[in-house]
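Weekly puzzle thread! Below is a chain. First person to post its structure in C-alpha cell form gets bragging rights.
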Amino acid sequence: MIRIEVPKGSSEPQLHMAPRRVNADFTRGIAPSIRSESPSAFEIELKQLGLTIETCLFSPQLREWCHRNKNHVYIPEWLLKRWHMSRSAVAFPLMPSKKEIAHKMSILLVEESGIDQFSAG
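Winning reply:
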C-alpha cells in the first residue's frame, strides 16, 4: 500500500510504502500446504463404498471405478501401480486449431443460411 504525505513546512509530497508481509513458513524453509478443503472424487468414492485406505486395495467395485476414472480424477499413484493401471498419455482430446474451428464455423454458417455453396453463379 502506498501512502502520500506532505510534511509540515514542505511543499514536496513524499511516498511511503507499507512493509510487505512475509510468509513465515517460507523463511523457515517449510513448504506451504496446498490442501483442498473439499474431498477428492476418490475420497468420496471410498466413503460411499465404506472403505478405508487399508481396505481399498481389495475392493473390486473400487478397482472398476478407478479403471473408468483414472484419466479424469485424482487416484493415488501407489494404488494404480498396485493394480497395474496407468493413465493415458492423452487423457483429454486435443483442442482443434483455429483453422479447424474456422472451417467448421463456415460450414455451419452455410448450412444455416440455406445457400448451396456449390451452385454456379
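Puzzle host: Confirmed. Bonus trivia for everyone else. The mean pLDDT is 77.
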